[in-house]
């Protein structure tokens, strides 16, 4: 078994080239030989140096077996290397590669992510999405006005709230992939902040023809190889769209805004929580928090845990005062808890609680329990 020990890079190797120094593996048993012969030519496999002898030979674990090889003099026990089978005849010949140093693997994207994560840990707060405009234009300057809200408000709010996170920009990269695949419309994609970061000052054909520049500016969270492929596909589609809509201008990416969005994306990935703050209608503030509580660890025997989500809505209403509404969805089971520090509101919520329970059950929710808690204590 030959090992080209003088090759430590990842450049192509010509097996028929001039003779080079090689390393020869020891004479393995037939079953060991069969395992090595089963390796695919050209496919890298992980290996580890497990021991070395005084004579200079090394024992290497590869393909679930240990074989004896002559390795470079500076090889160390415990070192992880990569072996690639180059040829089976006349003898097994491997390409020997060392794993690159960890610092050489840190890309610009990695450094950006590291800097943002450091700022997150120093800040200590959860990044929050801020609503720029009220969800509803209806004013509610008095309790009487609050009772005069338009009919069909629930359905209207359902649509608004369901689209709020979708168009927030937190999931822009996955939405971009859906758009390229034809499963998301260009109109909905253009509603997200990243799509509005353009200044359209350049020629659209030139800007879109260089997708790698856009990739470097946006510094997405996906692997760069995937992003490059995705952006090359998106470029051809974006070209015609931008030509029609903005023939003479293409905005430059605003780095500060892009970095702010990436910070929120990283925070959501780290804490599995998203917070939105805004207004229901002018003057009516609201905070909405959605958290993924699904255990990260799998159950015994490798079974995945049931998905579990918690939604917390905090609002100070004209009649009921400060209300915290918590809804937890585990699998297809729902738990609802309403909390308030106003004694009169506690009584009122408990009085009309059965109507909420009935509405949830009518909607098909499997209600586990419903409670109203007094938070005055």
UniProtKB/TrEMBL annotation:
Keywords: Cell projection, Cilium, Flagellum. Residues 1-26 are annotated as: Disordered. The keyword GTP-binding does not apply. Gene3D superfamilies: 3.30.750.140. Residues 7-23 have a biased composition (Polar residues). InterPro entries: Flagellar_hook_control-like_C, FliK-like_C_sf. Pfam families: Flg_hook. Residues 299-375 form the Flagellar hook-length control protein-like C-terminal domain. This is Flagellar hook-length control protein FliK.
């Amino acid at each position: 078994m030959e090992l080209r020990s003088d090759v430590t890079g990842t450049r192509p190797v010509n097996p028929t080239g001039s003779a080079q120094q090689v390393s020869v593996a020891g004479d393995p048993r037939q079953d060991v030989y069969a395992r090595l012969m089963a390796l695919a030519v050209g496919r890298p496999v992980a290996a580890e140096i497990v021991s070395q002898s005084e004579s200079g030979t090394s024992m290497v674990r590869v393909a679930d077996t240990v074989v004896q090889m002559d390795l470079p003099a500076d090889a160390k026990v415990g070192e992880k290397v990569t072996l690639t089978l180059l040829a089976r005849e006349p003898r097994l010949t491997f390409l020997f590669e060392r794993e690159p140093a960890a610092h050489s693997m840190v890309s610009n994207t990695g450094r950006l992510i590291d800097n943002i994560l450091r700022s997150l840990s120093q800040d200590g707060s959860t990044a929050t999405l801020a609503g720029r405009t009220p969800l509803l234009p209806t004013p509610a300057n008095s309790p009487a006005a609050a009772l005069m809200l338009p009919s069909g408000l629930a359905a209207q709010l359902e649509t608004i709230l369901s689209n709020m996170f979708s168009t927030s920009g937190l999931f822009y990269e996955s939405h971009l992939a859906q758009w390229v695949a034809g499963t998301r419309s260009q109109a909905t994609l253009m509603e997200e902040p990243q799509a509005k970061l353009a200044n359209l000052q350049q020629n659209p054909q030139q800007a879109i023809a260089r997708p790698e520049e856009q990739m470097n500016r946006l510094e997405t969270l996906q692997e760069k190889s995937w992003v490059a492929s995705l952006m090359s596909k998106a470029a051809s589609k974006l070209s015609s769209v931008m030509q029609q809509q903005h023939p003479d201008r293409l905005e430059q990416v605003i780095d500060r805004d892009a970095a702010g969005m990436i910070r929120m994306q990283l925070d959501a990935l780290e804490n599995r929580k998203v917070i939105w703050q805004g207004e229901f209608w002018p003057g009516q503030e609201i905070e909405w928090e959605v958290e993924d509580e699904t255990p990260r660890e799998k159950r015994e025997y490798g079974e995945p845990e049931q998905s579990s989500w918690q939604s917390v809505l905090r609002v100070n209403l004209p009649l009921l005062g400060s209300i915290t509404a918590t809804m937890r969805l585990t699998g297809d089971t729902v738990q609802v808890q309403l909390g308030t520090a106003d004694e009169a509101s506690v009584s009122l919520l408990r009085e009309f609680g059965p109507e909420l329970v009935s509405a949830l059950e009518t909607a098909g929710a499997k209600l586990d329990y419903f409670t109203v808690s007094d938070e005055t204590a």
